[in-house]
Amino acid sequence: MLTTKTIILKMDCSDPDPLDQTVQTYTDGMNYVSAVVYNLGKPKGSAALQKIVYSALREEIGLKSQMSCNVVRQVTGTYRTLQEQVRAKKTVWQQIMYAPTSMTFSFGRDFSLDGDEIGLTTLEGRRRYRFFRYPHMEQYLDGTWKFGASKLVKHHDGTYYFHLCCERETETREVTKSSTFMGVDIGQNFLAVASTTDRKCRFFCGGKAKDLRNIYSTMRKRLQSKGTRSAKRMLKHLSGRERRLMTDMNHRVSKEIVSFAVQNNVDVIGLEDLSGIRDRTQTSKKQRYTHHSWAFFELQTFIEYKAREKGISTIYLDPAYTSQTCPRCNHISKNNRNGRSFVCECCGHSLHADLIGAQNIESRARTYRYTLEVQGCGQPPIRELSIR
């Protein structure tokens, strides 16, 4: 199974002008191709689109050959995603405009890595830039990982970072040959609750995420209501801090979850397929921000790729009624759950509601394993990842 990681390298750019010019021209090329696709009314394949726009990208806009190819592939992917959202009636067909904040490079074609230097192709030719090499990066730069298409990203303060994409094959046990499972219930009161086949359980990060969201939400409201210059400066200073803290929290929690799975010899981790949950559920106005800022997908993605590195498979299961089903007698009722407590109205079984959800997810993971075995299937399809 292919494991993918993105390593963020901070670059030491004493002369950023060539990069600024290259990123701006690259963005002009993407906006040009975006206008072409928008006027066509539907996305085209990258090969067919490249025949239409390649000469203009090279001669009129002034991009290098590989840059032109990367532009076409990137815009094609964006409009394919837009088309899927249009079909799901989540948005309408529209022209996408790009900002000069990033560009894509292909390893071996327009970027190379040598020691603590990155060679990048700019409009002025190949330039070499140093990056800060930290100890935790060494495992990805020792030659066991292959490099793929990566991104140069410009932050709002003008600093450049290189998002290096690394990948390698790892061995994971097939679901049909697995014997120990673990269900993970993702929530807001507790970021995660895990339960294994032998009923070992653990709660992770209770209430900290919700408290963090509430603190920054209240802080922003207070500063926005003042509207002074100092308040605006403070809002700018706080920009992105909440997101970074939540990402760090999800990294730490996912690491603890996978460590707990390794300690209990878990072969497969079961997760809920929560895609579209914000469209399906309604919340009160007071809880709306907490609900819509819930970073469940990021946490699940971190769990998935960290588990894959340890040889543990992950599967996504239907989340319907996992918090309303009694794991002892399988009775389903809304009345079984009241807040954080669960008491089955049929058999009287009582437990923490989130732990009930984790146990039901683990049970469905085992059922899924037997279903695959009966159908003669092997490994389930892997969900596409967007890894930090």
UniProtKB/TrEMBL annotation:
Coiled coil location: none
UniProt keyword DNA-binding present: yes
Keyword check for Nucleus: no
GO molecular function: DNA binding
Transmembrane spans: none
UniProt domain Probable transposase IS891/IS1136/IS1341: residue ranges: 163-277
Gene Ontology biological process: DNA recombination; transposition
Residue ranges occupied by any Cas12f1-like TNB domain in the UniProt entry: 296-361
Keywords: DNA recombination, DNA-binding, Transposition
Similarity comment: family membership: In the N-terminal section; belongs to the transposase 2 family.
Name of the molecule in the record: IS200/IS605 family element transposase accessory protein TnpB
Source organism of the structure: Methanofollis tationis
